[in-house]
Structures are given as C-alpha cells and as structure tokens.
C-alpha cells in the first residue's frame, strides 16, 4: 500500500502537460536605407506555371528575382508598381522557371510613390 502512495504522485507528475510560452516576435522594421545607385523597375505578373512575378527594368529588360519574398510579402505585390532595386546577376547555365530573363538576387528594394 505504501508503494501505491509513492507511485500515484509520480504517475500524476509524469502526466502533467507543461506549456511552452513563446515570446512575441519582434516587429519588422521598415527599411530605412535608400537604394543609392539602384535601377528603376516595374513589377509585373507573369502567367506561367511556377513563375508568378518578373521585374522589368527601365531599359525593357526582364529579370527574374529569386528572393523577392525576402523584401515583399504576397499582400504587398501590386502589378505595375514602380520600384528601385539593386540586384546581383546570377550566371546560371541552366534553364529557369520563367525562361524570360536572367536570374538575379535582390540586394536592396525601395518602393517608389
């Protein structure tokens, strides 16, 4: 009987569910940096499976940004929105999803009004 008095509290303690309370994430700060020396571009939707958005530069060249989700959320994407961007061109020898232009990595993005 005395083993039962020892076993019951241990059993109940092992069945207790503990909650892990995660801290609230820090708010995302608005980008303060201006894209000095960036290029003017317009974001355009592209209707092709797997390819959704491309950037058209002021000289008419279309480029495929690989990391636009780091700078714009899906709600922020507006067709024909003017942007100022700095990009790094990726030299890839393989075909891309959009097959419309060179692939780039965005290093700076600024919305223009």
Summarize the structure.
The protein is mainly beta and 113 residues long. It has one helix at residues 2-15, and strands spanning 39-48, 51-57, 62-65, 81-89, 102-111. It has a domain at 36-113: OB fold (Dihydrolipoamide Acetyltransferase, E2P) (Beta Barrel).
3D architecture notes:
The chain is mainly beta. The chain has a domain at 36-113: OB fold (Dihydrolipoamide Acetyltransferase, E2P). 12% of the residues lie in helices and 35% in strands. The protein has one helix and five strands, in the order H-E-E-E-E-E. Strands 1-2-3-5-4 form a five-stranded mixed beta barrel. The longest helix is centred in the first third of the chain and has 14 residues, at 2-15. The protein is elongated. 12% of the residues are buried.
Please give the structural blueprint.
Elements: H1 2-15, E1 39-48, E2 51-57, E3 62-65, E4 81-89, E5 102-111
Parallel strand pairs: 3-5
Antiparallel strand pairs: 1-2, 1-4, 2-3, 4-5
Helix tally?
Answer: 1
How many beta-strand runs?
5
User: Could you give the order of strands across the largest sheet?
Assistant: 1-2-3-5-4
CATH level-3 fold name of the domain at 36-113: OB fold (Dihydrolipoamide Acetyltransferase, E2P)
Task: Tell me the series of helices and strands, N- to C-terminal.
Answer: HEEEEE
Strand content: 35-45%
Q: Which CATH-level-2 architecture of the domain at 36-113?
A: Beta Barrel
Structural class, by secondary structure, is mainly beta
CATH homologous superfamily heading of the domain at 36-113: NigD-like N-terminal OB domain
């Amino acid at each position: 009987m005395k083993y039962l008095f020892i076993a019951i509290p241990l059993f109940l303690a092992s069945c207790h569910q503990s909650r892990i309370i995660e801290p609230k994430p820090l708010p995302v700060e608005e980008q303060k940096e201006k894209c000095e020396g960036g290029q003017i571009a317009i974001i355009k939707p592209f209707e092709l499976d797997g390819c959704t958005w491309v950037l058209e530069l002021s000289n008419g060249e279309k480029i495929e940004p690989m990391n636009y989700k780091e700078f714009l959320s899906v709600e922020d994407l507006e067709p024909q929105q003017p942007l100022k961007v700095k990009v790094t061109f990726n030299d890839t020898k393989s075909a891309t999803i959009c097959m419309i232009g060179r692939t780039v990595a965005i290093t700076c993005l600024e919305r223009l009004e």
